[in-house]
Amino acid sequence: MVIKAFPVLGLVAGLLSPTASSFALPLQTPLNSQPQMQISLEFPPSPNREGAQSSAGGGRRGQDLENRVCTTGDIPLTALKPNEDEAEITVSAHPDFFIFVPENTAEEAEFVIVNEDNDEVYLKTFDLSKEAGVVQVSLPKTVMLEVGQTYKWQFVVWCSSDDPSQIEFVEGEIQRTELSEDLETQINATDDPLEQAQLFATEGIWQDTVMIVAKLRESNQAEWEQLLTSVGLDAMIASAPLKPCCIEEEATSSELEN
User: Residue 252: what pLDDT?
Assistant: First the structure.
């Protein structure tokens, strides 16, 4: 049990108490006029969706901008996920997590994920950029989420090295599920990652949808914006730079070992 991480998870409770068909074309219709597949990356609505939520200073504060500790700007610390009350779904053993971090004066940030027994699965502490951006936290290959298990995660911004109560954080749950045979067939039937993302979105599998579109963001900004705004995230978040966390460090360590 890491002393630094888990009091944060308990801090809230202490302070306050997720066969293609062939058709004959008319002779006058040129072959190159066949309609292209239209990609829509609007994530389907959930009856429980209330928009992305944020927590700061040890208590749930929603989109509260007045009680933040060390972040500034019009948008608070925000997890890129569709809703607050439901666990996000993934078919990946090593999913990525995305958090919008506003301009800040934080000392550092921490990401922790625990299993259903509240045992730590992964903990990473890292420096934060002072500029606003979407931090991408990638689980290493040594950390594997199990099928059928629901995990709690938390992203903590440590605002003061002297006072552990001076924090801002967002949190959520994620559940790994098996890829259905039908969806796997559809995924394997296309080499277009945007089509694959659309298939995941249609099935309500958020984490894999956003992971794919994040990789394509540089060339498909419109689709990235469409996906995020479809779940109620602010357009300013969609335009914020993407800042991968911990990937380069792990790659460097791997290179050193070789």
Answer: 41
